[in-house]
Design a protein that fits this description.
It is built from 6 helices and 13 strands. The chain is of the alpha+beta class and 306 residues long. The chain has one domain: 3-Layer(aba) Sandwich (Glutaredoxin), CATH 3.40.30. Helix 2 packs parallel to helix 3. It is globular, with a radius of gyration of 19 Å. The relative contact order is 0.15.
Length: 306
Amino acid sequence: MAAEGRFFCADAARTRGDLLAGTAPYGSVWVLVEHRGGWPPSGFDGLALDPDVKELVFSAARAVRARILLIRRHERRSADGPGRWAVLRQEGTGAAHQRWGTWSRDEDLVRIAAALEEPEGGPGAGPGAPGPPPVVLVCAHGRHDACCAVRGRPVGRALSERWPELVWECSHVGGDRFAANVIVVPDGVYYGNLDAASCVETVAGHLADRIRPEHLRGYTDLFPPQQVAVAALLGRFGPAGRHHYAVVATAREHDQWRVRVVTRTPRPAAFDVEVRSHRTPPRQLTCRGLSMSSAVVHEVMSVRAV
């Protein structure tokens, strides 16, 4: 996909064979703000909003470690009507919550801060329980990284044609070199290395609660070695539901991790997954960043039933 003489980080990552599992950033709360115009490289931070409103939203988001993402539909020609905002969260129990609103003036976004400050609990869908359908986000933030647009836009188009009410393009989500990136929230599942063909099958499996490991970056309520352990079990035993596996213990000794994972259905079982972490040699990891950086990767060494 690269033009002659131009560097594309996603092409380079595929050539190197960069490991995908264990690269989902940690978090369980997301703020979505619809903005139909062009997105600044810094996303929400770069919008020309009232400074007091922006700081209020940022402060409330920092307090709960929420990630703020700009969103828009794939075809965004019409600017009619107010934009939408949402606060989505997943509790430690797996219960999912969504709060949506609209905004026409900067001051309307103050309600995001109020929604973020609401205590956990209240109406929501528990693990596997019926509730509002999840939101499917496709990173297409070309002004942040070229690969996000080159690879993200075709994926946004394919998914929007299939699920027009669920799918939004979004601003930078991390891991540019794994474009096209898709996040399903508030489920907290990252997928990467997708294209227009593989994205439909991957999201269809997710919506059917049959998650596959091939494009899985990880679950955002787990840390990288734990994400890798769950992906290894999905690879060994086949697709499973979002809450089929639970990490119950993690021990570390130097660069070695032992992650104990239990299955919840249909029969309880436990596995110890041995994971080794190491740093890669310095590389150019994004299209825009010219400096060389190393990345921490996690590899599965063994899987043992206990």
